[in-house]
Design goal:
The chain contains twelve helices and eight strands. By secondary structure, the chain is an alpha/beta fold. It has an eight-stranded parallel beta barrel, surrounded by five helices. The mean pLDDT is 97. GO terms for molecular function: 4-hydroxy-tetrahydrodipicolinate synthase activity.
């Protein structure tokens, strides 16, 4: 399974009552594929506000995305949680709905050790025929997936990739030690190009919602040996990479990118509690950031 070089972790559009806005979800999928050139979409990942989506909403979103994308891009379902049994259940239901793969986050809050992490991911992977992408994000889960455990999991045939939000050192070590079928993706937009320089295959992006086409140009330049051009594009895009997470005060994802999308005419709504939208200063910062894209 080739998920491509640029994967966008899609926001979940909400209406004014906080319900999933299906009309805008369809428009957003089209926009991300056609305008921003996403090769795969993660549905119901962290950026999709998975912690506050019900199981019913998740399954309907998986089905809707598969039906609407119509093969134009791959659909990766966020089915991981801190419950192995529930993750297996959701993964198997997603498989029935026709998704192309699943994204499995490191279990949060219950703080398993490395052997527990291995057995968690092994059990889910062996319960499905779908390709599995691991998701290591220690900043959100507290516990991180070690290089050694990642490489051990990479020996399972349908564990095909990892979305890595730890250090470039870990990206380097995984890329160097993994089997040929296993791909490393940067889960940090700002580290995307540096990660590719040390062996990553691509990027799972938040910024891809608004600068995906430019990110694809950056990736293409790098792959074609135009490193100086790739570096220039990275430098140009870097304020957006950082600004979507580090406005005047750190703003939890996806509050900033949803606000930016609304400014650009995509009615994706706000975020669900306990997340909140930007305050006045944060909103002004995001408005300047979006304005800079048209200059």
């Amino acid at each position: 399974m080739d998920f491509g070089r640029l994967i966008t972790a899609m926001v979940t559009p909400f209406d004014e009552q906080g319900n999933v806005n299906w009309t805008e979800t369809a428009k957003l999928i089209d926009y991300l594929i056609e305008d921003q050139r996403s090769e795969s979409l993660v549905v119901c990942g962290t950026t999709g506000e998975s912690p506050t989506l019900t199981e019913e909403e998740k399954l309907k979103l998986f089905e809707f995305a598969v039906d609407h994308a119509k093969g134009r891009c791959k659909i990766i379902a966020g089915t991981g949680s801190n419950s192995t049994a529930h993750s297996i259940h959701l993964t198997q239901e997603a498989e029935k709905l026709g998704v192309d793969g699943v994204l499995l986050v490191v279990p949060y809050y219950n703080k398993p050790n490395q052997e527990g992490l291995y057995r968690h991911f092994e059990a889910i992977a062996r319960s499905t025929k779908l390709p599995v992408m691991l998701y290591n994000v220690p900043g959100r889960t507290v516990v991180g997936l070690s290089t050694e455990t990642t490489l051990r999991l990479a020996e399972i045939p349908n564990v095909v990739a990892t979305k890595e939000c730890a250090s470039l050192e870990q990206v380097t070590q995984i890329a160097a030690g993994a089997p040929a079928h296993f791909r490393v993706y940067s889960g940090d937009d700002a580290a995307g190009l540096p990660a590719m320089a040390v062996g990553a295959y691509g990027i799972v992006s938040v910024a891809g919602h608004i600068i995906g086409a430019s990110m694809k140009d950056m990736i293409t330049a790098y792959l074609e040996g135009e490193q100086a051009q790739a570096a220039r594009l990275h430098q140009k895009l870097f304020p957006v990479f950082k600004g979507l997470f580090e406005s005047p005060t750190p703003l939890p994802n996806p509050a900033a990118v949803k606000y930016a999308l609304n400014l650009l005419g995509h009615s994706v709504g706000g975020v669900r509690l306990p997340l909140i939208g930007p305050n006045e200063k944060e909103a002004e910062f995001i408005e300047r950031l979006v304005h800079s894209l048209t200059e």
